[in-house]
Write a structure and sequence with these properties.
The protein has about 400 residues and is of the alpha+beta class. It has helices at about 30-40, 40-50, 60-75, 105-115, 160-170, 190-195, 250-255, 280-285, 310-325, 340-350, 375-400, and strands at about 20, 50, 55-60, 95, 120-125, 130, 140, 150-155, 225-230, 235-240, 265-270, 270-280, 295-300. Strand 9 and strand 10 form a beta hairpin. The chain is globular, with a radius of gyration of 22 Å.
């Protein structure tokens, strides 16, 4: 079955960005993918085979990725795919892992199992436009930071253009999803118009910052820049990076077509809001992702309170591993706290117990500090990554 955010019936469909974020070893997201690769993650393996140019990030051809994931799972001799909604909680041992827009039936069942601690937040997705509809004279290829390859299209704005765009963004009519009266956004994925409300310069110091960019027509750094990233290998579709939005569809056309090079942009997918469901995991789950009140039942993916594609894959891998261990009569296992996978699991099981619990991305702040102080940010990241991968290697060799 599909949802308002999905467009296909394929497994592994990416409904938000097509980027799995950084590949750099000195970056927390790069470390997480390195760990998942060492653990044999299908998601990371397929993503690497479906990659599109994105500088130092791992971005994928969205449709090819979903098709390959689907073929890998449906073609596995030990997996039987049942294409129907599961509205109830299965008997343990089992893993429950629903993605964005968990169905009402399963949400009700989770609420019945976990009570009032069952929470939700709304997430947003960015528009996708046709490459053939873009005006290349208003764009230039480059990546945001110095030293990166030019895998993005950049729409440069001067001061007047930037503030005119902000005025259009703030005055545009918004679509208000049913049940969205509380306005409970996830801070890590705010709509562009909500960011703009926090200050007229918020975007040019955030998603529109021009750091490391020089407009070849002027030889100068733009006042602000909008970036577009490939959605597919053919380069026929581009994503407006960071411009997740809840603007009404006609308003998206009006506002985003004011950007240089996008005057006649054809919208292949409009930005939208959708519900992401998750539970108050620190009250309900152990760090091995097992329900405290239902032994043998594991909760994974976004549902357990991690945020991001790779983070959700990591939770799924740990939950699946531990479900198998329970079935075979072995105790659950969690990677060491020095690893990003292990640190995320510990955040889920030991995070804040108050109602302020929010899903978490991979970040170095989750890891224990190094024994020695390293002032250089990159060198510190590399040292944390080296320690993590060595710790993971030792843990894997000791698994029974």
């Amino acid at each position: 079955m599909t949802t308002p955010a999905h467009r296909t019936g394929l497994l592994g469909e990416l409904v938000c960005s097509n980027s799995l974020k950084s590949l750099e070893a000195s970056n927390a997201h790069g470390l997480l993918k390195a760990e998942l690769g060492a653990l044999g993650s299908l998601v990371v393996s397929v993503a690497g085979n479906c990659a599109v140019p994105a500088g130092k990030a791992l971005a994928v051809d969205r449709l090819l990725f979903a098709r390959t994931i689907t073929e890998s799972i449906t073609g596995h001799p030990n997996i039987r795919v049942v294409p129907e909604e599961r509205a109830g909680i299965p008997e343990a041992p089992a893993v429950v892992a629903s993605g964005p827009l968990t169905s009402d039936g399963l949400s009700d069942a989770l609420a019945g199992l976990f009570g009032a601690a069952h929470l939700f937040f709304y997430d947003a997705i960015a528009p996708i436009v046709s490459a053939g509809s873009l005006d290349s004279s208003g764009l230039f290829p480059a990546s945001r930071y110095s030293g990166e390859e030019g895998d993005y299209l950049n729409a440069p704005l001067d001061r007047e253009q930037y503030y005119s765009f902000i005025d259009s963004l703030l005055s545009a009519r918004r679509h208000q999803p049913h049940g969205f009266e509380e306005g409970r956004y996830f801070e890590g994925c705010l709509p562009a118009e909500v960011l703009a409300e926090r200050g007229r310069d918020t975007l040019r110091f955030g998603l529109m910052k021009p750091v490391g960019l020089v407009d070849p027509l002027t030889g100068k750094r733009p006042y602000a820049v909008a970036q577009l990233r490939r959605e597919d290998r053919a380069g026929s579709m581009y994503n407006l990076v960071g411009f997740q939005t809840q603007l009404a569809q006609p308003e998206q056309q009006r506002v985003f077509r004011t950007l240089p090079g996008l005057g006649r942009a054809e919208f292949l997918r409009y930005g939208s809001m959708h519900r992401n469901t998750f539970i108050n995991a620190p009250r309900l789950l152990s760090e091995n992702l097992e329900a405290r009140t239902r032994p043998g039942l594991f909760i994974a993916g976004q549902l357990c309170g991690v945020e991001g594609y790779a983070e959700s894959a990591a939770a799924g891998l740990v939950a699946g591993l531990n479900c198998l261990r329970v079935i075979s009569g072995r105790p659950p296992a969690v990677p060491p706290e020095e690893t990003m996978v292990g640190a995320l699991c510990r955040y889920v099981g030991r995070g804040p117990l108050s109602g302020s619990y929010q899903p978490m991305n991979a970040n170095f702040g989750l890891l224990p500090p190094l024994g020695t102080r390293i002032g250089d940010k990159r060198l510190k990241g590399e040292a944390l990554a080296a320690r993590s991968l060595e710790s993971l290697k030792e843990w894997m060799s000791g698994l029974s």
